[in-house]
Predict the 3D structure of the following.
Amino acid sequence: MAKIDPIARAAAMSARGLILKAPYPGADKPWPAICKTCKQPTRSSYTSVITRGQGPCFICGQRKSSAAAARKRAVPAEVAEDKIRKANVEPLEKFPGTQGTWRCLCLNCSREIDVWYSSVVYSGNGACDYCSGSRQIPDADARAELLALGLEALVPYPGSNEKWRSRCTTCKKIVDPTLCNARKTKTTCRFCAQRATTPEEAVEIMKEAGLKPLIAFPGNVKAAWRAEHIDCGKQVDAVLDKVIQRRRASCIHCARYGFKQTLPGFLYLLVHTALGAAKIGICNEGSGRIRTHELNGWHQVLVTPLSGYQAVRAEQHVLSHWLTLDLPQGVSRLDMPQGGWTETVALRDRSLPELRADFDAAVASCMKPHCSGVATDSSPTEEDGYLF
């Protein structure tokens, strides 16, 4: 057996990049040393380094392994750009690699964003924090974006994933999409999307508006469609296009069976903050009608006692004025299960000072001598201009 030469073995270890700190301990025992590369202490044995050919320093070995793995995982710039564009963003700079953020432009909201490539491509997360709702945007910016999508906000911005009460600028109907869904939907208004409707969908739209079709769908949204107004039982010639738009009420014949013109009454103005709407209405003394509205979130702004006949005329004065201004109704039928949605207007269209002025003008008009009498028939007629 050859004699072991500690000096030769020390020279071999030194040649591998180690500064030895102790005499030769034996072939298989840890040999304290300092790595010349990273300056960190090591305890590799002579057998592992020289005989087996392993690296003399564990830390340097880990770094080389990580670097090799990183080179293996490296994504070519052209591949990265192709994949990131599938997330509907456009790169604004060269691909920095997977370990840093990448400045891009979101094609949904047109904002510059910092994208983590690994999060989007490997984890499947959304690229834009604004579109996902994790980052809030200012109310004014959100309103401008919604308006560009064809919807006018009626209440403050609630967040991109919350329902936002709005009105379609095309059909003037009230909808409540989330901003995220509005960005992704081709037709932001669900009612406009039904313009090219099937006969089955057309019947459902009519029923939602409180109308029961008496004949088959005529096949044209602008054609007259004979129907029965469910609330009063009278027949009307409805136009589906107008029903969808809700630009005029479902039935011009509908009488106020609960209101008695021969008894004292009230003219009232209510506001619902969450719905962003105001309502004009009348009720007889002791009817509890105002209380019913209050239980559904409405609160009083103005209330004035009048004779029953005067109350009817005052309310019609306000409604006729709103019709002249071409103001759409402020809420939908589903928003007011207690009824009265046809006498509403959005606060976006009519401010509170303007509503007060409308109310005062109506009261003043019904105080004129020709309005002080009592009607011979308590049910309004079509000639009276009622659009309920």
In short: Residues 371-388 have pLDDT under 50 and may be disordered. Residues 117 and 123 are 9 Å apart (CA to CA).
